[in-house]
Amino acid sequence: MASKEDTESEAQAEAPEAPEAPEAPDNPQQVCTPDSSEFEVSADRLEQLLKSMEVLLLDVEQLRGHCSHHATELMHAAVDLKQQQEELKEGYSELSREMQEIMDSVEDLFSTKSAFEAKETQAQKLNRQL
After folding, report:
1. How would you write the chain as a 3-class SS string?
2. Contacts of 31 (CB under 8 A, 6+ apart)
3. What segment(s) does the record annotate as region Disordered (predicted)?
């Protein structure tokens, strides 16, 4: 029979080893501190990030200015288009009235022509009778 120690040894040998968690230092003042080169790299990265953010902010301001300018232009164009639309409506109304007057005049001319032709036909009949 295997002894208790042999069984524990076999169990430990078969079980995968878990990574050991870092132990807390005995002295709190011995906390792992990065060396100065790590601070320089972090400072460089932060500086690059800061510059990138400044560039992005400038781009945003520039785009805002362009958008504001285009919005103003579009508003002026919309006002101009509304004015042109009103002018076209007025012009259409005026042309429509003129067209109706022309149609009335043409109708009157056809009525006059018909009346004239009727009188002429009547005059020709009377001439034949004489």
Report:
1. CCCHHHHHHHHHHHCCCCCCCCCCCCCHHHCCCCCHHHHHHHHHHHHHHHHHHHHHHHHHHHHHHHHHHHHHHHHHHHHHHHHHHHHHHHHHHHHHHHHHHHHHHHHHHHHHHHHHHHHHHHHHHHHHHC
2. 25
3. 1-39
Report the alpha-carbon distance of residue 123 to residue 117 in Å, rounded: 10
Residues belonging to the chain: 130
Distance CA 42, CA 44 (A): 5
Q: Is the pTM of this model over 0.90?
A: no
pLDDT > 60? residue 41: yes
pLDDT of residue 16: 47
Report how far apart, in Å, the C-alpha atoms of 52 and of each of 11, 44, 58, 109 are: 56, 12, 10, 82
pLDDT band at 104 (very low <50, low <70, confident <90, very high): very high
Q: Is the pLDDT of residue 103 over 80?
A: yes
